[in-house]
Amino acid sequence: MGMIKAGAIAKGTYLLEKTEPFVVVEREFVNPGKGSAFVRLKLKNLRSGAVLKITHKSQDNCEEIDVDEFDAQFLYSDGTSYHFMDSNTFDQFEVPMTAHEDAQYFMLEGETFKVTRWNGETLDIRLPPKKDLIVAEAEEAVKGDTVTGATKYVVTETGLKVKVPIFIKQGEKIRISVDTKEYQERIND
Amino acid sequence: MPFNPKPFNPKPLLDRSAMYHAVRRYFDTHGYLEADTPVLTASPIPESHIDLFHTQVHHPDNGASDSFLVPSPEVWLKLLLAEGAPSLYQIAPCFRNGEQMDRWHRPEFRMLEWYGLGATAEKNAAVMQDVLNVCVEAVRPDAPADVSGRITAITMEEAFRDYAGFSLESDLREAGLADSGAAGTADEVQKKSENAANGMSAAAARSAESDDTSEKALEAQAASEAEALERAAEILAARLEERGLPGGGNTAEMTAASGKSGRMCRETADDLFHRLFITLVEDALPTDTPLILTDWPALIPTLARRIPGTPWAERWELYIRGVEAANCYGEETDSNRLISYWRSESERVKRAGGIAAGVADWPEKIASAMPPCSGAAVGLDRLLALIRGDDDLKGLDLFTKHDMIRR
Fold it and tell me: How far apart are CA B396 and CA B402, in angstroms?
């Protein structure tokens, strides 16, 4: 366990607040006109998924969690837990979906991810910032509908419903921002 | 304009130019004189929360002397006012070191600062509305209501009741901050108003008192003020603790975290207030129209004058889309308070290991002749970005790899 000055905390830092492990989702500096510098944090509880908004003075000491990071292969999801296999030891383990609901949309069976562990507890699955997914279901574009900027909804191979431009067809590959779950571009392999 | 065939995006320059012209046109036609004051100074205003850019002036045959880039034109403008200048405004380059660089912070920025003679903070809120209107009109007449709508004004007390769920005023009164502190003791306030009624100036009244009496009175006042601030710190820390927020209880947690076992890390009342305000209130303020938050706690050391009989100071901050874009004080004019504020800020700067500025004559000059007025300051880069509908200051950067923000 190390101490970190609140002003040095970045997005993705792991913190212990009131004995619960959190990851920093957002960080913003606040400099009141007359007063000490503060940092406003949005944290995600890595056990419950609950979001905590908290403010620290930049000079406050916070408890940083020293995590182990290792590669693990995603095997499958059973609806309540993700099942992984440690790529080095081949040990299998489960991660409850509670705090990582969105991960289901960005992991394909057989893919390898960085997983973080602390005191024997799997804390987090490090997802890439962008993910390319195949469109599994898409409505046909209405013939003659050529309005620029027209959009429709499609469903990806992982079950994510996403708004895309009208020209996207079933079977095509699209790039999604993992943070916002929004369409970014069509990928032509 | 001669044609230059190279591709160039003139929008940030055009928007800024349009805004500056609008600002100048407004103040030039409303009785203000434009000032242009130095950027380099040997004796900056001491501000314990502002880190300065430090440089040196090299004298060809006589070594070097310390110099600083100004964090605002405040000291110059106040000096001009004390020397008899009319209402003033300035669009000034300002520099602040040691701050985090993010969406809304840059080490160098442009500030619009103005002082209206005889004005109050309330009067300046109306000027702020005018300035906002002319800037929106010049840059983006069809801007949405979050920046172009009429400014809503709410008091800090209302904001605390609505968003933090308790009365800050009751807490501050309970601490005894309604009748001590920056307004002076009740006796002093009484004496002042009697003097005013008799047509006696504050300076004349002071010189009429024996030095001894006023010295003792000041000491007694400082002691009772310190006690009230201690009580306020306890009450505010309890509010934080009730909500399980950092800084609450003042606290074993903090002591352990500081690594100095056995030593209490007691926080000041203004730090505790800011913890509560930033966590519970500031983030919850409505953003559908611009908002002015008025009447800030007088326990925050500033040069905003105290609202008599209350724990509040005559001060507001303007928020647009939740971003702080401007602030304003009804300016303190009492010479003792001005000098003691600068003295204590100077001490704080020294304690924090800051560079002590050179000996200056401006504190005495300003303190002896500060006219009643209200001063406001607007972060022009922020205001422009907000009017444009930007989510950060990047859209205004003229150079992609700005040397100032290279890390």
Answer: 11
Q: Is B246 on the interface with A (CB under 8 A)?
A: yes
- Considering the entire predicted model, what is its pTM? 0.82
* Concatenated DSSP letters of B191-206: HHHHHHHTT--HHHHH
Do the Cβ atoms of B311 and B177 come closer than 8 Å? yes
Distance CA B392, CA B105 (A): 9
How far apart are alpha carbons B393 and B12 in whole angstroms?
Answer: 11
Q: What is the distance in angstroms between the Cα of B210 and the nearest Cα belonging to chain A?
A: 35
* B78 CB-near residues (< 8 Å, 6+ apart): B115, B331, B362, B366, B370, B375
Q: Would you tell me how many other CB atoms lie within 10 Å of the CB of residue B46?
A: 23
- pLDDT tens digits along A93-103: 999 998 899 99
Q: Which phi and psi angles does A73 have, rounded to 5°?
A: -95, 130
DSSP for residue B51: B
Cβ <8 Å between B258 and A61: yes
ipTM score: 0.73
Q: Can you point out the beta strands (E) in chain A?
A: 2-5, 14-17, 20-30, 38-45, 51-57, 61-64, 68-77, 81-86, 92-96, 112-118, 121-126, 130-138, 151-156, 161-165, 173-177, 182-187
Question: How close B278 gets to chain A, by Cα (Å)?
Answer: 7
d(CA B66, CA B68): 7
Instruction: State pLDDT tens for residues B259-297.
Output: 443 334 478 999 999 999 999 999 999 999 999 999 999
